[in-house]
Each structure stands twice: as C-alpha cells, then as structure tokens.
Design a protein that fits this description.
6-stranded parallel β-sheet; TIM Barrel; binds zinc ion; 12% strand; 13 helices; 3-stranded parallel β-sheet; globular; alpha/beta; 39% helix
Length: 324
C-alpha cells in the first residue's frame, strides 16, 4: 500500500462503479469480500483503497446453471453471499436498494453496495420473481447477456429480433418497481426498443465507444447520442477486448472517455469496471485499488473539478436519484 492511505480520507469526489463480476468469482477463487486478496481484482478493502463509495455487484448466472434449470437458485445463492459477506465488514459497507439508502450510507461516512441482475434467465417466465428480487435489494436489471434468452437477443446473436413480449413486460415492470434498466449486452434492436419504452433514463452499465474499438459490445455514436438525450449514462469498462486491439492501458480508457465527452458532454458517462469479469487487466487498471489517482489523470487532461466529480460518480448518482 506504500504511501497511499486511500481516497476516503481526503476531500476527493466519491467514485461509483456500476459493474463488477466479483460475486461469481469469490467461491471459485476461495476468497472473501471483506479481505484484501492477491487473487482477483476487487474486494472491499481494495475498493476502500481506490476511493470507491458505491459499488454495484452483478448477479450473473453462467450457462452451466442455466442448462441445468438452476438459474433462479444460482441468483439467490449469489444474493445471499452478497448480504452475508457485506455484514462482515463491520457496518462500513451497507447494502443499498434505492437512492435514499445510497445517499444515507455516503452521508454517514460509509459506503454502499448494490445488486444488479445481469441477464434475465433467473426470472424464468414470471414477473413475480422480478418483484421478489427487487425486495431482496436488486436495483438494476440487464435483460440479456451476449446471447438470446426469453427476454431478448444479446449483441452476439445478430439483429433479427429485439425484445420478446416477456422482455417488454419485464421492462415495464422494472420501471414500475423503480429499478434501473440496463441495456449493456443487448443487441441494437433491443437497445432502441428499450430506449423508446422507458420514460426514465436508461443505463449501459459497462461498455465503451465503438468508434474507438469496433467490438459488438461497444456503443455506436448514434446510440451514445440517444442515450444521453434521454438522461442515461454509460459506464466505461476496463475489459481489455473492449478497449483496443493490443497494449491497452489506462490511457486508452481515457481516449474512450474523451470520445464520449466530445460527442455528448460529460453528463452521460461514468465507470463500469467489470472487475473480476476478465483475466489480466489493462496497465494502470489492474484492480480496484488502482482507481485511487484516476481523478488526477482527468484533471491533467483538462477536465475541471465539476466534470471529474460527475464522471467518477456524480452522473451515476443523478441517474439513481431519477430512477431507483
Ligand atoms: Zn457483462
């Protein structure tokens, strides 16, 4: 840890990260959320070192569990793991299911941990499961992963169809339940349908700019413009394959940021690291503790204090206030 004492001790803007895959990595890697580990990329001590005040944890169900018909059980297992392990950090981290709980945790000098569903397989064909997950604290719902499911079509399975009737009913119910609707991973047809259907801002929890890296998971300029026009936010992600071809680093992430800000300004972009969702990280973005001096890089690039605060967390907090 060297000379660093963590960002929480000094007057720096709170960081909000809308996506990590840590819940699914804890048991296979035999580590706990509340212990600094040299395995994986994110745990609560490393978030504290990095200055992260609000962290979203994805509930992602792998294909093996889906094939066995155990998607809902797997989701419940991960939600239980989240609540049990958070409690071990002595109250510093609070589970937060809505904006008021997030705001209260920060105001009291603590930090907030939130749940997001990544892919709707756990819902089966029953909106009642969505309502139960909302009661368990799940604040955001992503309809698909990369492939087709009962809600819609992921970005790697073509553009022949958008949302299914059940997918449309999930969007409507999520809005009614004050959940964020996350269109990361959805194909373009689904993206535009959700944008049309949602009265509230839509989010893209983790994706980069297609203009900088032509990957199907990244957003085209016209998608970024439309998302921003509706008050939505996209979380720039550290997944090396979504950053560039080779030699990716923090500098490349900042090029994606510059592109998005050049296109729509600084109010529609935040962070969605996807830590623990990929192998080796890009240089300068190795783990959650590395975020400790990201604000200094933004200031050096010419962003002013207000823009830095918005990009690192303020934009996500604004969307949460308007949605959940
Ligand atoms: Zn993902």
């Amino acid at each position: 840890m060297g000379e660093r004492t963590g960002r929480g001790n000094v007057n720096r803007p709170p960081i909000v990260d809308l996506h990590c895959d840590t819940l699914g990595a804890l048991e296979p890697e035999e580590r706990n959320l509340d212990e600094w580990s040299n395995r994986g990329q994110l745990d609560l001590p490393r978030l504290e070192e990095g200055g992260v005040s609000v962290q979203f944890f994805a509930v992602f169900v792998p294909r093996t569990h889906i094939a066995q018909g155990k998607a809902t059980l797997r989701a419940l297992h991960l939600i239980d793991l989240f609540h049990r392990q958070l409690a071990q950090r002595g109250g510093l981290w609070r589970p937060a299911g809505d904006f008021q709980e997030v705001e209260a945790a920060i105001r009291d000098g603590g930090r907030a941990a939130c749940l997001s569903l990544e892919g709707g397989e756990a819902l089966g064909e029953d909106l009642g499961v969505l309502r139960i997950l909302r009661r368990l604290g799940v604040a955001s719902v992503g309809l698909t992963w990369n492939h087709r499911n009962g809600l819609g079509c992921g970005c790697l399975d073509g553009e022949q169809e958008g949302l299914t009737p059940f997918g449309r009913s999930v969007v409507a119910e999520a809005v009614r339940l004050r959940m964020m609707v996350d269109v990361a991973h959805l194909n373009q047809a689904g993206f535009w349908e959700v944008l049309d259907a949602c009265p509230a801002p839509v989010i893209v929890s983790h994706a980069n700019a297609h203009r900088r890296m032509a990957h199907p998971r990244n957003l085209r300029d016209e998608q970024i413009v439309a998302l921003a026009a509706k008050g939505g936010v996209m979380g720039l992600t550290f997944v090396p394959a979504f950053l560039g071809e080779h030699g990716v680093s923090r500098r490349v992430l900042l090029e994606h940021l510059d592109h998005v800000v050049g296109l729509v300004g600084s109010a529609a972009v935040g962070l969605g690291s996807d830590f623990d969702g990929f192998g080796a990280g890009a240089a300068g973005l190795e783990d959650a503790a590395a975020l400790v001096d990201l604000d200094e890089d933004l200031l050096r690039l010419g962003y002013n204090d207000d823009q830095v605060a918005a990009i690192l967390g303020g934009n996500w907090l604004r969307v949460m206030r308007e949605t959940i």
